[in-house]
Write a sequence for this structure.
């Protein structure tokens, strides 16, 4: 099962053999024996790629769970205070991962040298079980699920532009004024044409047409800093630029409620030592982060 999962995750037999420090023929033989035992093909092999069949996709989900359960059982056998060890998998949005998770993860690995880590930074919500992940940092309201979640802070959604933009186009005083401004619409968090606000506690929705829509927040920030236009993102994403004056916020009194930030992990009979240690480690540090206050 470990070899099968390694081939699926590495995307090839040779890559899996390198990961497992074994020979490609032994990896190929193990997968062939597993397919023979199950009576079904798990991979479609071509000269250029190896991809999972439908049966392989289903087995990968169960295989990851089985291996995680085995790891939990081994850790339980040696006691709940075992030193964190093994591979830790974390997911977060791209910009949050780069700005906040990566420095904390580096410090964690220095503290626990027996742990290895891999990250999946993507601007979408991923299924922890399907992707074989241990911990997620999620921004927004959480649906009901079997996951355990620890809240670490809140983030505002702020309207911002560069001082040079405001000098040229003026400052909007009310959401209705945005119709006369050059807007940059972020597709990652707000693809709809309705821009929500609150006016003295009452919902106010503005239908606005932005001349530019962008799918990466880094590009939005770069363009806003240049003075091109006005946009709306999460506070932590622009906090460094607000602190040094390259960007300024507007319409603060019309902001909608902030979004919660949670550290999420799968429940289990015994949460592994590496997950327990990392969750405690990152929760304590994120709660001290001013951008999430």
């Amino acid at each position: 099962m470990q070899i099968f999962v390694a081939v699926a995750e590495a995307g090839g037999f040779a890559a899996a053999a390198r990961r497992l420090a074994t020979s490609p023929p032994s990896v190929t033989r193990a997968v062939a024996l597993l397919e023979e035992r199950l009576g079904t093909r798990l991979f479609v092999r071509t000269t250029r790629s190896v991809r999972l069949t439908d049966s392989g996709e289903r087995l990968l989900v169960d295989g990851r769970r089985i291996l995680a359960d085995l790891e939990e059982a081994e850790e339980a056998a040696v006691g709940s205070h075992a030193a964190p060890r093994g591979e830790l998998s974390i997911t977060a949005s791209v910009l949050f991962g780069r700005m906040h998770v990566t420095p904390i993860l580096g410090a964690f690995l220095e503290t626990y040298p027996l742990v290895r880590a891999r990250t999946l930074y993507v601007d979408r919500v991923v299924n922890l079980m399907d992707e074989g992940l241990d911990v997620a940092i999620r921004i927004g309201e959480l649906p009901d699920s079997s996951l355990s979640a620890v809240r670490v802070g809140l983030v505002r959604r702020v309207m911002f532009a560069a001082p040079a933009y405001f000098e040229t186009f003026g400052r909007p005083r009310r959401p209705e004024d945005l119709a006369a401004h050059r807007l940059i619409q972020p597709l990652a968090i707000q693809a709809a044409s309705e821009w929500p606000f609150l006016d003295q506690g009452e919902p106010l929705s503005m239908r606005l047409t932005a001349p530019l829509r962008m799918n990466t927040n880094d590009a939005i920030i770069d363009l806003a800093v240049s003075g091109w236009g006005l946009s709306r993102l999460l506070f932590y994403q622009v906090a460094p630029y607000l602190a040094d004056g390259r960007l300024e916020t507007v319409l603060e009194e019309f902001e909608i409620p902030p979004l919660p930030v949670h550290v999420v992990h799968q429940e289990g009979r015994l949460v592994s030592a590496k997950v327990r240690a990392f969750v405690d480690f990152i929760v304590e540090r994120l709660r001290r982060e001013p951008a999430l206050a």
Notes: The radius of gyration is 23 Å. DSSP finds ten helices and 14 strands in the chain.
